[in-house]
Protein: Protein kinase domain-containing protein
Organism: Cyanidium caldarium
Amino acid sequence: MLADVTASSRAPPPSAAPPRSTSLPRYRRVEWCGEGSSGGVWRGQALETGEVVALRRVEGVAALERARQELALVQSVTPHPHIRAVHTLCSGAQVISDHGEHSDEESESEPVAYLVMEYGEPAVERWQAERWWERSATAWLQEARSVMRGVVAALAHLHDRGVVHGDVRSDNVFYCARTNPSGDRQESIVALGDLSHARRWPAPDAPSLPAYAACRAHECFLGDEGQPMAADVWAAGCLALELLWMRQPGMPVFDCGTGFPMSELRSLHAIWDWLGTPPSSLLQRCAEQHPDRPPLYVPSGRPSRLQERVQRAWAGRGADADEVQLAIDWVAHCFVYEPELRMSAVQALQHPWLRGNVS
């Protein structure tokens, strides 16, 4: 078993078994939330203070080392109002089940730990429960803008500190309780979470392919993974389009299933169907940089259908047409094919759509 780990602790080499812990339980698992990209997650409670937290189970020496790195990285860029905090890493012995029992079996070769995080309500669950897009188009457009402002503010903060998120998607957006500036009440604030795929950049030895194919930037499918901050902005555009398309939040527009390589090819064709034919100069550059990749058939002369489709989705719903157009323009800037010409997270925050007042 392992002792408490903080961001300032020295992590042992992956081959070393963590030290045993004799600490009393500190957290209780209360409710299963689901399986995340890096392990199972529970809603939990701190036994001493009663604070509600999120507990992500970490199993195995390699996963433990990654969790240590995530903890150190997140604590180096927080607190920030739009980034979900990670508090500590504790041993399996310090977490009990809702029945008061230790339910984790571990060994020196397969230690169990829990990453203790700030609790946040999953945004997708709230959206699907309240279904704002069906009840009030105006309220949903305001909510979409508020969500994107929070997500992009988090990205701008991370990028300014040389950190790439690498997994921007609706499943990693949360509503977290924050004390308002006057300190007299709690507010529900949009926060970007799950930095398990985050990394410092530049870092030549770090994997740079975005974790989730449905939000992967166009250039990444072509082998160009050298501009991951621009890829984060593309992923933010995917999230915004998911909200503006008003079909079912939590289901990305470019999601074409799994099963390489056909799913990647279908994703590319979905992108081209929405955004039109990419510039030939970009395709040629990627082909020259990656001559080992098989040639692609790219339909020529295809126009972008982004504006037409989103406008049609909002037609007759009573939302302000000018604001809808601003939202479309913002998404279009996220989807500029050339990553070097795509707007940055800071520029995205300065766009008129996100500068507008949010009620």
User: Anything to note?
Assistant: The domain at 122-355 is CATH 1.10.510.10 (Transferase(Phosphotransferase); domain 1). The radius of gyration is 22 Å.
